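Q: Hi! New to this. If I give you a protein sequence and the SMILES for zinc ion, can you show me the bound structure?
A: Yes, paste them in.
Q: Okay, here:
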Amino acid sequence: NEEGGVGNEPGNEAANAANNDVGNEVDSRDPDDDVGRRVMERIQWPVQDLKKGCKWTSALMKNFATYFQRVLADSFYPVLHPAIGVGSAFEGWSPREQDVVYQVLIPMTPPRGHSFHLELETTGQTHMRNASIRVQQECTCMKKQQGNKMLCFLHHSKEELKTYQDPSLLHTLCKDSYPDVEKTARWFCQLVRAIWPALPQAHNWHLVLLPSRRSCQFKVSNGVESYRIELLFGVREGTSDVFVSSQPRHGHTSSTTWPESF
Ligand SMILES: [Zn+2]
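A: Thanks. Here is the predicted structure of the protein with zinc ion bound:
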């Protein structure tokens, strides 16, 4: 499990690109922190601290979810569902305090007029498979008769669509016809940065986005406490409990590859 490492490689070109996208708000570690860090590493962190962090993260994600819904209601970006706590912190353990990353998975479903088709491949070495998610536009002409105002992506002219309707998901977060994990990660960071000032947490906490290629990672602190939170995003495989997600596999994972993760 190396997703935590992605954001920690300042030499990583892609990470730097993401970093530029989110401005200059990048965490720079003070070398004087080292002594403190070594002390912290020896402390066995009690479970209630993790519980507190998980609770705080869940409350934050609930607030974000309200705004995700509001902001995305009329768009053709993926529909975002309530976050699910994943990873060791939400299982109640962590190797040491320094490494605690509160990871959540945000399930996505296709927006109106679109459908997702998972194309799974077996990698051979493990039971875990990789998926590509093919996005297809769907006819919404029938729905229009039922009072839906959107134009049909398939049966209205390009001119009408361009003038009266926001772009299709195919033209925002996709590469060819497949959602691009890195574009989606940058989109999440933009959403988080735009919504943050409206949240009650913003009164007492400061948010810093951290570079991450395949997720949206940030640190919040209030001068006394701080939490590192990572938003992963994924698509459910049919009606199963399995998700293909943005979480990277060891080695190189291409930007349109979504490994089976949870
Ligand atoms: Zn149609």
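A: The mean pLDDT is 83. Let me know if you'd like me to explain how to read the tokens.
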